[in-house]
Design brief:
Blueprint lengths: L7 E5 L6 E2 L6 E5 L10 E3 L6 E5 L3 H5 L5 E9 L2 E6 L6 E4 L5 H4 L2 H6 L2 H4 L4 E9 L5 E6 L9 E3 L2 E3 L6 H13 L9 E12 L10 E11 L4 H6 L8 E7 L1 H8 L18 E7 L5 E7 H4 L12 E2 L1 H16 L5
Parallel strand pairs: 1-7, 8-13, 9-14, 11-18
Antiparallel strand pairs: 1-2, 3-5, 4-5, 6-7, 6-8, 9-12, 10-11, 10-15, 13-14, 15-16, 16-17
Helix pairs in contact: 7-9
Length: about 325
């Protein structure tokens, strides 16, 4: 048996035993011109006349041909994170961006991905939506020196390590990035949803280099955001800013849908500037004002990225809003 060196995504469909997902998920055959979405690139098969070879290169696309969101069951056992199909209403939502690179990757482009990248598989991440007693959620800004999604606002999180549970991994990442030390008994945890994350996030900005499924976990605490703020000790190598967002601010953030055009309509009651905690290279916190427009930036189609809330984070925040509404909380 091959030694497991890291947690990777495995896929199961039609009651087939789970298989390790490829970085660029598989090549399949279909009868030429029949049953394929228009967005799928194909080439005529030289081995099977009348058949076309096409790349099903998205984890989400493994479970749905045309949609960007699907429900799945997930489990983490024996250092394997397994996704399998399920009936609607009985699973966890899995979503990809409308502009997910693997959705549009051609067979030739998939084959051109360097072997050292292809061999990585699909990694598993965990991100923590830490909700305070007064219903605010913590976001952190990744430092500009990080290779992946620099200067982007996300919840605390990172990779799941061998023999960890999702909750344990999330609490460890929360502690390492923010200094907040919470025990499993201090929180109530809930898995909100899964996000298929790719970097760079669009083909127009380069070929895929990283491929993850991110698990978004909601942690409810009995502490207010002021109490939690007093214990913040961010790691300056990873975090350059911290921000507590409430439901009204979240509504403004998620109204700026990545991949869409047009201006964002300002929401009533949301201030034009937001107070954030800047993190110095020494780890010292200081307050500053950040224009709301920065948090409402959309992912650019080309060129350098901009300071913004990541697309996956917007998805998770939408799930958080739905969860609040389901609890009967006015938001």
């Amino acid at each position: 048996m091959e030694k497991v060196t890291k947690i990777l995504v495995h896929l199961s469909k039609n009651n087939v035993a789970p298989q390790c997902a490829r970085f660029a998920q598989g090549h399949c055959y279909a009868e030429t011109g029949k049953g394929l979405p228009q967005t799928v690139s194909t080439v005529e098969s030289t081995e099977s006349p009348g058949m076309s070879l096409y790349a099903v290169a998205s984890i989400t696309g493994h479970f749905t041909e045309t949609l960007d969101e699907v429900e799945v069951k997930c489990s983490l056992e024996n250092n394997r994170f397994t996704l399998c199909e399920c009936e609607k209403g009985r699973g966890i939502p899995l979503k990809r961006a409308t502009f997910c690179p693997f959705k549009y990757l051609s067979v030739a482009e998939a084959a051109a991905i360097p072997l050292d990248v292809q061999s990585r598989g699909v990694d598993v991440g965990v991100a923590i939506l830490l909700q305070s007693a007064n219903q605010k959620v913590l976001l952190t800004r990744r430092t500009s020196s990080l290779r992946i999604f620099p200067n982007v606002w996300v919840p605390p999180g990172g990779h799941v390590e061998l023999d960890e549970r999702l909750l344990d991994a999330g609490l460890r990442e929360l502690r390492e990035e923010t200094g907040l030390k919470l025990d499993p008994g201090d929180v109530s945890a809930q898995l909100l949803g899964l996000w298929e994350s790719v970097f760079p996030p669009m083909l127009s900005r380069g070929m895929p280099q990283r491929h993850h499924v991110v698990t978004y976990m909601l942690l409810n605490t009995s502490l207010t955001h002021q109490q939690l703020q007093a214990s913040l000790r961010p790691e300056p190598a990873e975090v350059s800013g911290c921000l507590w967002v409430d439901a009204s601010l979240v509504k403004a953030i998620v109204s700026a849908v990545d991949g869409e055009e047009g201006s964002v309509t300002p929401l009533e009651g949301v201030a034009p500037t937001i107070s954030v905690s800047e993190v110095s290279p020494e780890g010292v916190l200081s307050e500053s004002d950040l224009p709301l427009s920065v948090l409402c930036n959309r992912a650019p189609n080309s060129g350098e990225d901009v300071e913004r809330v990541s697309t996956g984070t917007k998805y998770a925040l939408e799930l958080w809003l739905k969860n609040l509404e389901g609890q009967g909380t006015r938001c």
